[in-house]
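Lab notebook, bench 4. Still working through the backlog of constructs that have no structural model yet. Next entry is a single chain of 269 residues. Request: give me the structure tokens for it.
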Amino acid sequence: MRQTGPNICKYVTRQSDEQLTTINFVLEQNAAVDGIKQLRSCDIMYLMVSGSGRLVTDTQSFELTAGTLFFTFTGVPYTIIDTDNMVYMYISYRGRRASELYGQFDISQSRCVFPGYSGLVSFWKNAIGRAAERNLDLISESVLLYSFSRMTKPDGQSRENLTEKMIHMIETEFTDSGFTLDSCAEKLGYNAKYISRIFRQGAGVTFSEYLRDARIRHAIFLIEQGVSVVKNVAILSGYSDPLYFSNVFHQSVGVPPSEYILRHGKQDD
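Model written out:
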């Protein structure tokens, strides 16, 4: 049956960064543009939530399944076709930095569809649920940048290894404050003590150390991209308690996050 939930479209009202500006953050459950050729004046990052469909351009056709990230580009016509109750989310954006990110992650009109990012779905859903007019610019840009940062070429062979599966799970789910060794073990179907031992043998560090480092790296990334409120950095990095986050950040980096923001955060011109 066709999805009946409402679409959600939230528009960013504060657009001040010429380098990268987000325009809106959308959950599309009843696609009004199904099968309609589109031509946009902005670039768009899409994430397939469920179902399946196709992205059709003037020269190519791409299959879309749940967990697929895909891109459309300014001035390039395209059509999205729903083949099986597709639900997707997207962030529209523009700015000079987009082309830099495309080059960094090898994204182009011929290479614009990337399956294997189901771990981002809950992150995107949680983010759009938290987004309000006062923070939509911050949240939508953070989601966009984080999703770009996860763009890596999948390595199917390494994921057969339990340690690599755990590393992949950490790297895709660490922003969820509820993600722990126990939840990881439950999803993989193993005993927590067993996979803890296997992980330490394979990775050379404990699960909690690797998880902490992933979260702190992302916190640093957010700060250097212009997120300047400690509470926001904490929440977007997987910490529900900003004070605890500040202590962990200080221990890991050597300075509290507030000081790191002053030293390394983007300054307004």
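Notes after review: The longest helix spans residues 207-224. Residues 8-121 form a domain with the Jelly Rolls fold (CATH 2.60.120.10). Flag for follow-up if needed.
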